[in-house]
Amino acid sequence: MKTYYFLGIGGIGMSALARYFQALGHQVSGYDRTETDLTKELENEGIPVHYEEDISQIPTQIDYVIYTPAIPNDNKEFLFFKENHFPMKKRSEILGILAKEKQLIAVAGSHGKTTVSSMITHLLNQSPVGCNAFLGGISKNINSNYLINTDSELLVAEADEFDRSFLQLFPNIAVVTSTDPDHLDIYGSHDEMLGNFQQFVNQTQENGVVFLKHGLPLEVSEDLTYYTYALDNVSADFYAWNLRVYKGSYYFDFRHPNGIWHDIKMNYPGLHNIENSVIAMAVAIQCGVEERDIRAAIESFSGARRRFDIRINTPEFVFIDDYAHHPKELEFCIESVRHLYPNKRIAGIFQPHLYTRTRDFLDDFAKVLETLDEIILLDIYPARELPIPGISSKSLLNKISNHNKYLSTKEGLTDLILALGADVVLTLGAGDIDKLVMPLEKAFRENLGL
Length: 450
Hints:
The protein is of the alpha/beta class. The chain is built from 15 helices and 21 strands. It has helices at residues 12-23, 37-44, 76-83, 91-99, 113-125, 184-187, 190-202, 271-286, 291-300, 327-340, 355-360, 362-369, 393-399, 410-420, 434-448, and strands spanning 3-7, 27-31, 49-50, 64-67, 88-90, 103-108, 132-139, 144-147, 154-159, 173-176, 209-213, 225-230, 238-246, 249-256, 259-266, 309-313, 318-322, 346-350, 374-377, 405-407, 424-428.
């Protein structure tokens, strides 16, 4: 038994590793800046967590310190471990070490990672093939962000491009969902970011398999098996066709290199999730899952928390929570909502995430947000960043040409959104907007008399 201490234990990837090591019988504890539902869950599972930078609360005997790159360099506990030469590794390094022991399915992309990896995990887990998993969100099907299966050699993991973390991974099966510019505070330019995605693909193991979304500007070595996928592009190796909606469920034909599977049924909403299901099914086929098991698992997939998460669904009113924090993600989410509710008035509550991302994509954010019927902006969630002069939610609001736009405090949000009387409400963002979801849901239900 070893003792693991996590600096930033409340992060979604960090908490998955913490749970994993505890499940193996090790001593696990940690620090995080903020108490959240996730840290409360960890505490309820017997993992001690504290919320002050307090060296006295650190266990006396520690074998490994695992930290997130989001921890500031001047954090008192971080400095204590550095100065006293504790064995320290980033989360991505630990994931890379664990992944070398398995057949790794790594899902990379500037968006789509969590849903795709959750889908692949569900498809494998619902079949005799099975898998282990480290996810970047809470899968509703397993109610967790990790999965252990000692009988399976497969490991599904998200390959996170932030801080170049995915370069710690050497997959047997590599998936890239998207390469839209993001994290330019890390990379400096889109070209530099693309170069790192290319390096990730190049790290695929000999005789491995690469799945790329059709049209991505990446190259694949001739000694690797290579496939493309898409929503409905007939030039791709895997795609959906004959898509229709019947009684609230999607039906489509799944076309793959060896034929067609007719009438796949998917209950999980969102047009972009049809595309996500295409790549999940392609990977499942590669791993030897039978068609009947894939069909059943796609139908029973219920998504991940904060990924197109329908909280209220009545004929009069719909409330959806989504993690979208990049212009492309917002576009996918809003388009999917329009497709599902074409004649409804849609209001979006958006909390921008990071000053740098808001600065880098100010025009793109404005363009996509103005497609909503009503737009409410909360203040920028800074995360690890200091303010940038001239960059604020107000500067974003001023760029939006739709006149039905509002800047709101968290305290005034409930009254404002109820007063607007929208048919569909979306909460959007990757910051602490998640803490507002339950209070908003409660207020909506009371308003509806539910």
